[in-house]
Amino acid sequence: MTDFERALVNSFNSFFEDEEIDGIAHRKKQHRFSSQLCDVLVDSPHEMFYLAIENKSVKTSSTNKLYFTQHFSESDGGHQVERISDFVDRSGRRGFLAVELKRGRGRSRKAYMVPWKAVRSSYRDDDTGLHIDEIQEFPEIMRDSEDYSVAELCMEMKL
Question: What distance, in Å, lies between the first and last C-alpha atoms of the chain?
Answer without folding.
Answer: 23
